[in-house]
Amino acid sequence: MTWDKHQGIGLSEISASVLIISDSLFSGTRDISEDESGATAIDLLSNFGFASINLDYYPDELAAIKSKIDHDVSEKNGLILLIGGTGIAPRDVTTDAVIEIIKKELPGFGEQFRKLSYDQIGDKALLSRAIAGIKNESVIIALPGSPNAVLLGISIIEKIIQHIMELLRG
Question: Are 166 and 9 in contact (CB under 8 A)?
C-alpha cells in the first residue's frame, strides 16, 4: 500500500501500550494466565511491527486509568489500547476516562465497531461504548473486554493505524 505524501513513518519506530482494565485481574482474584483478551491483543499487534508493546493491568477506577493514559501519552506511545470497562455497568469507567483525556474523538471507529458487532451479536452491540480518539501524537482506543471484541477492534485499526501515525507524526 502506498501512502504518498505521508509516507516515511513506520510502526517500527512507534511503541504501543495495552491496558487491561479488570478489577479481578488487577487484584489477583483471577490469574493473569486467564487473560485471553490481553494475549489476543499482544499477538495481533505484534504482527503490526511496533517497536515495543507494553502490557499492564489496571482496576476499574477512573483516576488510575486517566493517570496511566496520561503517562503513556507523555511517554509517546503511539497506540494506547484499553481493553475492558466500556459497558454500562456502574464500574465501567474506561470510556469516561478516555473522553476526559482525548483532544479529538474519532467517532467513526466506535460507529464501525458497533455496526460490525451488531452483525455478530445483535442488539447487545448497542450497549458498547467503544471509543477512539487522539491526544498529542497518540491514538487512544477503548474496546470491550471479550477476546472477540479485541479481535474485531484490532481488525478495524489494522487498516488505518499506519495512516493515523503518519498524520500525527509526519
Answer: yes
How many folded domains does the chain comprise?
1
- What number of other Cβ atoms are within 10 A of residue 93's Cβ? 21
In a domain, 7, yes or no: no
Q: What is the CATH number of the domain that holds 140?
A: 3.40.980.10
Q: Which one has a higher pLDDT value, 34 or 108? A: 108
Residues sharing a CB contact under 8 Å with residue 30, sequence separation 6 or more, in sequence order: 22, 24
Q: Give pLDDT tens digits for 53-81.
A: 999 999 999 999 999 999 999 999 999 99
Residue 152 lies in a domain: yes
Report the candidate in 155, 170, 16 with the shortest Cα–Cα distance to residue 82: 16
Apex 109 CA angle, 152 and 169, nearest 5: 110
